[in-house]
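Q: You know discrete backbone vocabularies at least as well as I do. I have my own habits and do not want them to colour yours. No explanation is needed for now; the record alone will do.
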Amino acid sequence: MQVLFIVNEAAGHGKGKKVWHHLQQHLTINYQVAFTEYEGHGQELAKKWAEDTQTKKLIVIVGGDGTIHEVVSGVLHNEFIVIGVVRAGSGNDFARYFTTFQNVGQIETYLQTEMANKTMDVGALHLGACQHEIFVNNAGVGFDAFATKHINKSRLKFYLNKIGLGKLSYAVAVIRGLFSFERFDVTIRTNDQEWQFHQAWFVAMSNHPYFGGGMKISPSSKPDDGQIELTIVHGISRLKLLLVFVTVFFEKHTKFKEITFLQGNQFDIIMHTNDVDCHTDGNYIGEIRQGTRIHCTVQRDVWQVISEDH
């Protein structure tokens, strides 16, 4: 069985390097390893390694949600590639839902079995004619992407990671951004319905429940049901929004009248009043211009992940 480790040594501000060093010392199997060197490199490495294969192969990702996003993007629709993960990021939202490897022993045991796996969906965003993005965990427009942008610019995330509190960086960014973010109006359409939301904070598009380092924003989301869930927070004060983020950790946010949940296999999302930040799996992808139509869909059964049967 061929195994490739794709390692992001910079994940978790250096955690990836430490995790890989520990794994490497204990591995007794034959394997290949490749290290990501720049943004998007994980996708290139995975795509190249998976090309023209006619036998089952395992890619083990050592990294965080951003690295997972890249690697999965590179192997979509490839029936021979199975994805495993050793978590080494800051938020690790992927690992809160999907099965992951906890140690070398689990990896080696898995390879000695029939390599049980499950086939999963991804969400897809079409931003005009040229830009297409996928998401494994979730995507968002508005305040969550605004917070993500500022996390990536901040040194605070580095220091929190150093003391093992990296998952709090999102919460800190939320508090910092509460008083500077400009709310927006948004229209959401499906084939037969339309909703108008005013003074919206964000629209989160979820393929599984978690975002922002452990917040269970979309409790009903499942990555293998052919559905995408939208969470729209709108018409709520800045102080009450902070309360929403606190209650998300306990799944109590579903009771707020200012939060709307929608489910379907496709949505059109149109921004009004101002340009809005956007992210996919915690990767900031830029501003969505006012009036732009985001077409959000689901791609069914397009990648494989190890199952809990290993």
About this structure: The chain has two domains: 2-115, 123-301.
